[in-house]
Amino acid sequence: MILSPTPHSTLGEKSRHVTKRRHTDSRTDQNGQMTTPVTSSYLDRLVTDGTDEHAWLQARARGITATDVAKLTSIHSIPVVALEKLRPSTFTGNAFTEHGKAREPIIAEWVRDRTGIEPSSSLFHSEPDTRHLATPDGIGMRSDGVLELAEIKTTGKGWDQIPGNYLRQVYWQQYVLGAQRTFFVWEQHRNFIPIAEQPQSTWIERDDDAIAELVWLANGLIGELHRLTN
Prior knowledge:
Elements: E1 46-48, H1 53-61, H2 66-69, H3 78-86, H4 95-115, E2 118-119, E3 123-125, E4 133-134, E5 138-141, E6 147-155, H5 164-177, E7 181-190, E8 193-194, E9 200-205, H6 208-229
Parallel strand pairs: 6-7
Antiparallel strand pairs: 1-3, 2-5, 3-4, 5-6, 7-8, 7-9
Helix pairs in contact: 3-6, 5-6
């Protein structure tokens, strides 16, 4: 675990077009930390392309990922999430995760056909903090320079609204890459058979207030991890 300390005051691949367009957004969180890239293209911040799973897992372990942030419901969740991150996982997958792995490439092709967003397994870090990491399921740059992401889920349950943990993942990915919106896609199955010919989908626009809160919580998690390991 390579996470340097965070001051207490901050608690809290593929692209269809590979033009390295520069971002000029200057939004900040409540502590004055940048929440979007200022001068950097997301392509400049590639950590690993995901083809080497071991390298991808090792890189993820050194920072705060969307999976970690999804669990940060409030400041009170930080100690629990920190202990989970430090504890070696014995989970190796089950029928649900295997189903998701099998369906994701198929759904990703459906996403590409409809939006032009290309599948991706690459890990990126944010502009303001190299410990802030994300791996969206898809990345696409529009002709007007707007960066769009895709996130794909499979579920055995019907949703009236997108679960909060998945929204936190989406906002975190938008922050790390500097994206404006995410094409969120979910496919419901019954006994691992899709119940419809096509998955459901919706666009999720960037929410800078939600992102600022997540950055604050993520930095609090970094501080707690440093406290527990030193």
